Amino acid sequence: MCPWMIWGSKIEALQFRNQFRMLPESLARSSLDFQGMKLPGTVHTAESINYAWKELKVFDDDVFNVTYPKSGTTWIQEILSLIYSNGDPTPVKTEFSWDRVPWIEQHAHKAKIESLTSPRLLTTHLPLKFFPQNFHKSKAKVIYTIRNPKDVCVSLYYFCKIAQFMEFREDFQEFVARFLSKDEVYSGWFEHVKGWLTLKGQPNILFLSYEAMLKNPRENIVNICKFLGKDLDDAAIDSVVTNSSFKAMKENGKSNYSAVPKFIFNQDEVSFYRKGIAGDHKNHFTPALDEEFDKTYHELMKDVDLTFT
Ligand code: A3P
Predict the structure, then answer these.
(1) Residue 305 pLDDT > 70, yes or no?
(2) Active site (annotated) includes residue 125
(3) Does residue 11 register a pLDDT over 80?
(4) Closest Cα to atom 27 of ligand 1
(5) Average pLDDT, stretch 271-295?
(6) How far is the CA of 138 from the centre of ligand 1 (A)?
(7) Which of the following is catalytic: 44, 107, 109, 125?
(8) What class does this enzyme belong to in the EC scheme (predicted)?
(9) How far is the CA of 9 from the centre of ligand 1 (A)?
(10) How far apart are CA 286 and CA 140, in angstroms?
(11) What does the DSSP assignment read for 93-105?
(12) Whole-angstrom Cα distance, residue 176 to residue 270?
C-alpha cells in the first residue's frame, strides 16, 4: 500500500476514534454477554448498557425510536429529524444520523446524549427489560417499528457482512439457525417483539409496521406527527416524505454511512441501503428453511396477534 494511503487510513481511523471509539486493532467480530443478552461487543460495554438501563435521565418530551435491528431504525431516525425541523432538510443534510438520533446503549454516544437539547430524539435496540427504567415514570414517547422477521433476518445477514464488529456466518442456513435461537443479538427478534408488544394500548407508545410504511409513507408520517403532537402543514409533510425516501436516504452522505471507514463498515459488496423492500426473504429462503422458520414462528408467537403483508 502507498504511504499516503496508509496515512489516509490512519487519519480516517483517528477521526472516527472519537465518533465510535474504534480503531482497526480494537475491532472484533465478537459478542458481549449482558445478563444472557448478546450484543456486538465493540460498540457496547456492560457499563454502557447499565447507563442506558439504570442511569439515563428521561424527560417528558424525549422520543425513543425503538426497533429490533434491521426493522427500519435509520428510516425512523430520518423521519423524526425531519418532523422536528418542520420539514427543513438542513439537519439531515448537515449532521450524521447517529448524532441527531443517537443510540443510548452504545458506549461512544454517552457524551453526545448528555449534550443534546430537548426535545431529544433517541434510538435504541434494547429489549423492554433493559429499556431505561426512568421511562416508566415519565411521559416520554416510544415509536416501535416491526418488520417481517424473515426480511429482518435477510437484512441482518447482509448487515453482518458489512459491519466488521458483528459476528457473521457466511452460510445462510447457519445464519438463520442462529436467528431463530436465543443467541441472536438483543435477545433475538421473538423476545424483543413480544416484550415490547406487552405495552400495546399504552398512550405513549406507537407501533408501526415497516411494510405499512412502505405502502403508504405519507399516511404513516401524518400518524407519527399526530402521536407526537406535531402540527406540520402539507408542504412540510411532503418534505418529510421526500427527504426520507429510500432514494433520498441512500444518496444522503449524512445518513448512508459512506463516511464510516471500511474497517468498520465495508459497503464494497453490499450497500447499507440494500433494497428497502418487503418480501426479499423469498429470494433467500429455500422451501425447507421457510418451513423451519414458520414452525419456530408459530411456536414462539402463538399468543401474539401479528400479521405481515
Ligand atoms: P434491506 O437490507 O432489506 O434493504 P435499520 O435501519 O433498522 O438498520 O434497517 C435497515 C433496513 O431498512 C435495510 O433493509 C434498508 O434498506 C431499509 N431502509 C432504510 N431506509 C429506508 C427507507 N427510507 N425506505 C425503505 N427501507 C429503508
Answers:
(1) yes
(2) yes
(3) no
(4) 276
(5) 98
(6) 30
(7) 125
(8) transferase
(9) 28
(10) 43
(11) HHS-HHHHS-BTT
(12) 19
CB 27 within 8 A of CB 164: yes
Bridging pattern class, strands 121-124 and 205-209: unpaired
Q: Say what the pLDDT of residue 1 is.
A: 41
Domain assignments of the chain as residue spans, ordered by start: 3-300
Cell numbers at 307, concatenated: 400479521
Closest Cα to residue 220, out of 238, 208, 229, 231?
208
> Which residue lies with its CA nearest to atom 22 of ligand 1?
246
Is residue 256 classed as helix, strand or coil in its secondary structure?
coil
**Spatial contact of 188 and 179, defined as CB atoms under 8 Å apart:** yes
**69 CB under 6 A from ligand 1?**
yes
Strand order in the sheet with 205-209: 121-124, 63-67, 141-146, 205-209
Give residue 254 CA to ligand 1 midpoint distance, Å: 15
- CATH assignment, 3-300: 3.40.50.300
73 lines ligand 1 (CB under 6 A): yes
For 225, the 3-state DSSP assignment is helix
Say if residues 160 and 172 touch (Cβ distance below 8 Å): no
Q: Can the peptide bond before residue 119 be classed as cis, meaning omega within 30 degrees of 0? A: yes
SS3 280: helix
